From TrEMBL:
Record-level GO BP terms: DNA repair
NCBIfam families: HAD-SF-IA-v3, PRK14988.1
SUPFAM superfamilies, sorted: HAD-like
Protein name: Putative hydrolase of the HAD superfamily
Organism the protein comes from: Marinobacter persicus
Any one GO CC term of the record: cytosol
């Protein structure tokens, strides 16, 4: 599923890959409509019927992920509202062990996320995730979402990597397709990003896992053969 022996770098999505997507799904589908209804004196279902099409219309764009954009458009402090349900932020299964094994194996680990810097700071504060990886890059710093093939060109100006020696792990099929089309040789899909929702069907061309324990044994076998990160 993953040829660890050919890798120098592992790019990792955050929400739905390292962290449980339940937080984000709960916020956008339940908590935000509730607060929006209170703010505009609407019935909760009426708020949902207004918000969901508005949000979905931005899917795949940088606006879809931008806290500032939604704060301005909805006249609500999105970062503050996210903090209200911050107790739902948490790791997906086996993530700490996986990150530890990447480090022991001498592989460079970089979180590559579409998350806006403000909620990113909240999630790092809650999880300490930044202590377990070598770098974190937000697409907002590069002005392109990961779904855009040009993102990967811009990423190369921020963190050095070789396409043929890099693995991208993400729960988004469009992002993985974008990475693959940009030349990243190995891609891996996470099929169970939300702990409260059923797993998705696999991608026709990109291998997938439900949890990291499915690939940990092979990674751990690699660890003694490497002393340090090679890039």
């Amino acid at each position: 599923m993953v040829d660890w022996s050919t890798l120098d770098t592992v790019f990792l999505d955050m929400d739905g890959t390292l962290l449980d997507l339940h937080f984000d799904n709960h916020f956008w589908l339940e908590h935000l409509p509730k607060r929006y209804a209170e703010h505009h004196d609407l019935h909760p279902q009426q708020a949902k019927d207004t918000l969901i099409p508005m949000i979905m219309a931005e899917r795949g764009s940088l606006n879809w992920y931008c806290t500032d954009y939604w704060s301005d458009r909805l006249s609500l402090d999105i970062t503050r509202l996210k903090a209200e349900v911050g107790d739902r932020i948490g790791y997906r299964p086996h993530v700490p062990e996986f990150l530890q094994s990447l480090r022991k194996g001498g592989l460079k680990s970089v979180i590559v996320t579409n998350c806006h810097p403000d909620p990113l700071a909240l999630k790092l504060q809650r999880t300490g995730l930044d202590r377990h990886v070598d770098d974190i890059v937000s697409s907002h710093d590069l002005d392109k979402p990961k779904e855009d093939r040009e993102f990967w060109q811009a990423l190369a100006t921020r963190t050095r990597y070789r396409h043929d020696r890099t693995l991208m792990v993400d729960d988004s099929f469009p992002v993985l397709e974008s990475a693959r089309d940009a030349g990243i040789r190995q891609c891996l899909a996470v099929l169970a990003p939300d702990s409260r929702q059923p797993a998705r069907e696999p991608h026709a061309e990109i291998p997938g896992i439900h949890h990291f324990d499915e690939i940990l044994p092979a990674l751990r076998c690699l660890a003694p053969a490497k002393g340090s990160t090679r890039v």
